[in-house]
Design goal:
Oligomer: single chain
Shape: globular
Helix content: 40-55%
Largest sheet: 2 strands, antiparallel
Number of domains: 1
Structural class: mainly alpha
Number of helices: 4
Strand content: 5-15%
Length: 118
Amino acid sequence: MTTITLTDKEANFLEQYLDLAFWVADIEPQELDEDSHREATIDCLAFLSRTDWCLNDNNRKQAAHDFYLSRNGHGSGFFSWPKVYTIGWDADQLQEIAESFGPTDYYTIDGDLLACEQ
């Protein structure tokens, strides 16, 4: 079995993505169950693989938040910040990519672990 070690940039993106997911779900950040953490990691890496060339250190944190909001149709996302995403690709295209991942939702199970449903 091959284990992927995240770069600092990837780990920070994943952390920002999950922080917002917990905030939206109005739950305290907790340890995710293994499957949910794997799925979140895969989604974040897949999104970054398609978009990271047009992100930078100044907008990557916002992009992690916007990825979560956009894929779940929360009425906010990349289109809310068109001036932030002006490096070679417009906010509409980032929005479309995020929406292509479909919605996901986080919830508590057994009182302490978090799980996601896609």
